[in-house]
Specification:
alpha+beta, globular, 5 helices, 6-stranded mixed beta sheet, 242 residues, 4-stranded antiparallel beta sheet, 26% strand, Alpha-Beta Plaits, single chain
């Protein structure tokens, strides 16, 4: 597989919440049979270069305000993402969100981290191009402690990210803080991890390494879909289009 490094600002940072009326089992079935595979199969041709989804719904003691699914979706550029909406495939894919996710689910492009954070504005910590499909992707999700206000929590996360930027050697790092939680991904070629820096500032937490995962079928093949288990995280492997 050819390596393809892209800019750290060319990623959509997804925080999704389970749709109302869905059970956890329904939610996971939709993720595995439709949403995760369709995200790749219907967007490869318009410049998707890496995709790492993580399913969090149903994890023990997870606060309801922490997302039920997260993902990072890398594109060749922000313009490539926007131009995708000129195609029928991407417009059709976008409509599948309504059957899976609740209002309040969202994705945003990140900005460079400069020491402070804005709620729901993702940031990137390493300002060099990287290929997130090719390396080890670690994901950390944490919930705000009840004893902390959202403002105290946000500032504590910012301090932790500043420490990671200065002291943890990484090939890439992305984070987003909400009022009640933080999501963080890192691309690492060493054992060093920023998760240990974030752990002291959260209450509930979940850490996982995204498993490299091939999709076994195409859009027109008979296929039951992926097996998505509670807490599962995937680094989807696919042939990128020139």
């Amino acid at each position: 597989m050819v390596q393809e490094r892209v800019s750290p600002d060319a990623v959509r940072v997804w925080r999704g919440f389970q749709g109302s009326g869905l059970t956890v089992q329904d939610f996971y079935r939709k993720l595995g049979t439709v949403f995760i595979p369709a995200t790749v199969k219907m967007q490869i041709d318009v410049g998707l270069t890496a995709y790492c989804p993580t399913a969090l719904a149903g994890l023990p003691d997870k606060p309801a305000s922490v997302p039920d699914e997260t993902a990072i979706l890398f594109w060749r550029s922000q313009d490539a993402y926007r131009m995708g909406f000129e195609t029928l495939a991407v417009r059709a894919y976008t409509l599948t969100h309504g059957g899976v996710y609740a209002p309040g689910s969202r994705a945003d492009f990140p900005v460079r981290f400069t020491g402070t954070l804005t709620v729901d504005q993702p940031v990137y910590l390493v300002d060099v191009p990287a290929d997130w499909m090719r390396g080890e992707v670690r994901h950390f999700v944490g919930g705000r402690r009840a004893s902390d206000t959202p403002e105290v929590f946000r500032d504590a996360v910012a301090t932790a990210l500043d420490e990671i930027t200065k002291d943890v050697p990484l090939d890439g790092a992305i984070a987003c803080v909400g009022r009640d939680g933080v999501v963080y991904w890192e691309l690492a070629s060493t054992a060093s991890s920023g998760a240990a820096v974030l752990e002291p500032v959260v209450g509930w937490k979940h850490e996982v390494v995204a498993a490299p995962t091939d999709l076994a079928a195409g859009l027109w093949d008979t296929w039951p879909g992926m097996d998505v288990g509670i807490g599962g995280s995937f680094n989807i492997q696919f042939a990128r289009k020139l």
